[in-house]
Every structure is written in structure tokens, then in C-alpha cells.
Design a protein that fits this description.
By secondary structure, the chain is α/β, with parallel strands linked by helices. It has helices at 32-41, 43-50, 85-104, 124-141, 156-166; strands at residues 2-8, 18-23, 60-64, 72-77, 109-112, 147-153. Helix 4 crosses helix 5 (156-166). It binds adenosine-5'-diphosphate.
Length: 168
């Protein structure tokens, strides 16, 4: 069973098995949550990321967490919002592919930031709908796998949106 939670705060502080990074396709660091994760993890994270050969939009790759309290970082690349239908699929796939990777690595607690809703411009309300659907669908299909899934909201608006969706 999945236990889905909504929390407010800085994802780099969470003691979970894995935190998800809203990375860019180079996996070589950026601003926003990506920058915060690299700063907190230390330079070894970038060194490991350099070996991965980038990541396509909607896909996910895993590294160790180094100096983070989290044991692993799952790097996924959200869509740059364009208003086309593929945005929805790409964002949905970020969550599902991250959760598949988590399951395949015996990860039982994972925290997500609100992928693509910063610099990549995805409207926060639409992104909350897509991501909650992706997580709910995945949980329904993987009901025999025990995992705590946290939506880690950095801003008040995201926190409100996810609390409304999950009624918490
Ligand atoms: P993207 O390029 O995918 O839009 P950003 O990092 O610009 O990624 O923003 C994605 C989301 O991450 C935004 O909603 C932003 O508020 C949030 N965010 C920024 N820093 C943190 C952090 N330390 N912990 C959790 N979420 C964060």
C-alpha cells in the first residue's frame, strides 16, 4: 500500500530513502530545487551525474544522495511548459518512472517536489492535478508495494493545492 502525504518545506532536509530532483536534461545542475539539492549533497553528486549521459524528458535516473539525509536522489526531467498535450504525458511519466525506479531499488519512502512548476512554467494547479493522478494510478497498480510518497511543497500555493486534492 502507498501512504500519500502532503508536507511543506525544503526537500533537501527530508530523511527519506529517496528525494526526487526536478533536473534538466543535462543532469549537470541548475537553479531552483536542482541547485538546492546539489548544494546540499556536495560535489560528489555532480561527479556521479556526469557519468549518466543526461536524461530525456519524462524519464528518470538514480544516484546516491551523498551528504543529503536521503540515501538516493532520483533525477527526472519535467517538460518545459508549452501548452501542448505532450506536456501532460511528460509530467505524468516523470512521476510514474520515478516511482518505478524507486520500487526497483527497494525504496520505501520518497519525496517529490512540484516538478516543472518553477522555471519550466507549468501552471501549479494543472501540475498538481497531473502529478496526483500519476501517483494515484501508480499506487493502484502497485498496491502490494509498501511506500510512503510525500508531495514536498515549497510554496504556499502548491501546499494548498495538494491539500485540497488529497483532502488533508
Ligand atoms: P523546474 O525547472 O522543473 O520548473 P524548479 O526548481 O524551478 O524546477 O521548480 C520546481 C518546484 O520546486 C517549484 O514549485 C519550486 O517552488 C520548488 N522548489 C524550489 N526549491 C525547493 C526545495 N528546496 N524543496 C522543495 N521544492 C523546491
Amino acid at each position: 500500500m502507498a501512504d500519500i502525504r502532503v508536507e511543506k518545506g525544503d526537500i533537501t532536509q527530508l530523511s527519506v530513502d529517496a528525494i526526487v530532483n526536478a533536473a534538466n536534461s543535462t543532469l549537470l545542475g541548475g537553479g531552483g530545487v536542482d541547485g538546492a539539492i546539489h548544494r546540499a549533497a556536495g560535489p560528489e553528486l555532480l561527479a556521479e551525474c556526469r557519468t549518466l549521459g543526461g536524461c530525456r524528458t519524462g524519464e528518470a535516473k538514480i544516484t546516491k544522495g551523498y551528504k543529503l539525509p536521503a540515501r538516493y536522489v532520483i533525477h527526472t526531467v519535467g517538460p518545459i511548459y508549452s501548452g501542448s498535450e505532450s506536456d501532460t504525458d511528460d509530467l505524468y511519466n516523470c512521476y510514474v518512472n520515478s516511482l518505478n525506479l524507486a520500487r526497483d531499488n527497494d525504496i520505501h519512502s520518497i519525496a517529490f517536489p512540484s516538478i516543472s512548476t518553477g522555471v519550466y512554467g507549468y501552471p501549479k494547479d494543472e501540475a498538481a492535478e497531473v502529478s496526483s493522478k500519476a501517483v494515484n494510478d501508480w499506487a493502484a497498480e502497485n498496491s502490494s508495494y509498501d511506500i510512503e510518497i510525500i508531495f514536498c511543497c515549497f510554496d504556499d500555493r502548491s501546499y494548498e493545492l495538494y491539500r485540497e486534492i488529497f483532502n488533508v
